[in-house]
Fold this protein.
Amino acid sequence: MSRSLGKCLLMLHCFLVLCSWVSAQDRVQYRDEKDKLATTSGTIQVENVLEVVLRAGTTKTERRIPTPAVVDITYDGQPIEAASAAAAERNRNYEKALALYREAWTKAPKDRRYLVCHLQFKIAKLQAQLAEAKGGPLRRQAIDDLRRFLKEYPESRQMLEALDLLSRLLLSENESPREVIAAYAKLKERYGSTHKEIATRADVLEVRLLLAEAHQAHANDPATASEKFAATAQKLEALVKSAGAAAPLELRAARAVARAGAGQGEASLKELDELLAATQDPHGRAILHEARADCYRLLQRPRDAMWDYLWVDVVYNEDAELQARALYYLAQLFDQLGEPARAKECRERLQNDPRLAQSRYAKQVAASP
């Protein structure tokens, strides 16, 4: 009897040890080659801007997951508040999530670098999202915190997202995101030949800045702006040619706008018409309608431009930044077309709509006399 009891206790002990070993692992949720959600477990060995590497099972099999495919990671030993924070974040209760992530950070073992990095990024990201919604001093604090994160955790798996957040906040403050472009350029120089996503994201961000500068030049002195548009078009031509069929839609749309600003308006409009006919994705159509509106505006065809900006404002308005930009230019066009009441309505919506009021376009309207 005692021998049987001893065997049972030994088996129970082995079972509990096995359960604890199975549960005491990092779990990575990711998208597989077919874009379906999948989960794998193990002990994370490496996390960086390129990949997450785990060792799994008793054989210590190494598993490599590209960082862009990672959806979320649950870390072994993370404080219970981290799971509650993730749930609040999924429910878009950002203030509650931020408080819980901060509490989790205070309890996290500081020797777990990847866990601590994960929690610090979540805090910085949520502060950035709240700053975009509320503006004011929150935005400046969020910029400082993202800069601090990028300095403390260079080439972390969260680096690209942190750079994107920082660039958006800088543009919202009417500041140049040159530091972000420089960071992307370093990544592109180091990894661009083997990791096309990094190269593409660096190129898209630089093109956005170049086009923004060209549009600003056009607003101040249309006669000299064509040189900036021509230089941007030349750069975009090389980027699109290099990417071939895989060139992102935003690059193709930007190339069309730059060409129009450089005097190739009809060819640009024809290309955008063809892209629109082949694109069903709402966000893609918003990009293309806004690009076509920009072309018409640069070609001094305000009524045609108005219709395309209206498509972005009324129909394809999921992207708040694109919608805010459309309203900004609609206000200018309605003034030009002799419809001041509609121009006023656009400016009021920009400043009063909670989704749009903290955009850089709303700030530009507020700063105008």
Confidence is low (pLDDT under 50) at residues 14-23. Residues 78 and 142 are 24 Å apart (CA to CA). The first helix runs from residue 2 to 23.
